[in-house]
Amino acid sequence: MAVNSKIAVEKDQPGQPHRGKVFVAIHAHLDDVPYFAGGLCAKLMKEGYTGYIVRTGNDEKYGGHTIAENILNNEQQHLKMAQVLGFKDVFDLYYRSHRMNEISPVEIRGRLIFILRMLKADTVISFDPSSSAENDGDHAATARTVEDACAMCGSPSDFAEHLEAGFPAHPVRERYYFHARPEQRFNRVVDIGPHLEKKIDAIVECKSQGGGALGSELRARLAYEASHDATHVSPNGRPGGGLAAGGHAGRYRENRTDEDHADRRGDFSQGSAHRRRIRQRQ
Predict the structure, then answer these.
(1) Which structural domains are found in the chain, ordered by start?
(2) Cβ(51)–Cβ(86) under 8 Å?
(3) Contact 149, 116 (CB under 8 A)
(4) Are 113 and 73 in contact, with CB atoms under 8 Å apart?
(5) Other CB atoms within 10 A of residue 255 CB
């Protein structure tokens, strides 16, 4: 696990300091955002953000039924999961699962830039594009195209037809990156204690992923661990997942990494981009 020497701890902010701002969470599969950033998304929306969610894949391989049935079931569950967390709207791009590396990055990038400009996104949440530890091809393909889309979204020279259609260039000022693998780095811890039940409720809706009972099992395990004064549990519902909990009070947190620097591809965003790599730890 790579950890930055300076770890910031972020708790709920009173009121709605982010009122009027928009974030877009972009993941490849139905269960990525609930597991890796469900608490963060719930926290940001409570603080005033309007949230939207984009799923790049179609999850045709998950659910144990025919491809057509899996696609439909995951689509319906994606909508229910988004409603539980409080997202305003859902976008599905329907690229074939486990085959996203054969799709033109320019095609995906253009669709994402269009969505980000249309929604006037201030913040984007997605996978870490710099991680060499990511072994899921759909995650990696999504990470790269999201990074490029964010970099070019503020450039009027890229996809100029969007401007003609009435969607001007709009810089993405802030990016959060999931911490999805133990080897990935993080430098920020997010306290999600007040939002843990909503995170679990969202996982419950992902019935086509992981056998369909991970949310319920997670809730039961947390209750057991809290009653036995445990010092470490894994509410991600996945082996090796990460939130630390201590004592009966149930202090749960998610981690991410912050980096302030100008965009590597040039000043397309008309300023510095605030980038954060997220790691959920309970």
Answers:
(1) 3-281 (3.40.50.10320)
(2) yes
(3) yes
(4) no
(5) 27
State how far the alpha carbon of 68 is from the alpha carbons of 102, 153, 213, 237, in Å: 21, 34, 22, 27
Please give the single-letter amino acid code of residue 65: H
User: pLDDT, tens digit, for every residue of 125-152?
Assistant: 999 998 888 889 999 999 999 999 999 9
Q: How far apart are CA 191 and CA 252, in angstroms?
A: 6
Which residues contact residue 161 at a Cβ distance below 8 angstroms, ignoring those fewer than 6 apart? none
Which amino acid is located at 32 in the chain? D
3-class secondary-structure state, position 255: strand
Residues in contact with 79: Cβ distance below 8 Å, sequence separation at least 6, in sequence order: 90
Q: Which residue has the higher pLDDT, 213 or 117?
A: 117
Give the residue-averaged pLDDT of 190-210: 91
Q: Which residue has the tokens 């909508």?
A: 79
Would you call 264 exposed, middle or buried from its count of C-beta atoms within 10 A (0-12, 13-18, 19+)? exposed
pLDDT digits (tens, 9 = 90+) for 1-54: 455 568 888 899 999 999 999 999 999 999 999 999 999 999 999 999 999 999
User: Helix or strand or coil: residue 131?
Assistant: coil
Over residues 204-246, the pLDDT tens digits come to 999 998 756 777 787 888 888 878 764 443 444 453 333 333 2
3-class SS of residue 72:
helix
For residue 179, give the nearest of 37, 39, 29 by alpha carbon: 37
Q: Under a CB-based contact definition with an 8 Å cutoff, are residues 171 and 236 in contact? A: no
- Helix-then-strand count for the chain, H and E: 7, 9
Query: What is the model's pLDDT at position 134?
Result: 86
The continuous run of DSSP H or E covering 56 comes out as strand 50-57
- Tell me the C-alpha distance between 116 and 22, whole Å: 10
As given in the structure block, the two tokens for residue 65 are: 């039924």
Beta-ladder partners of 9: 189
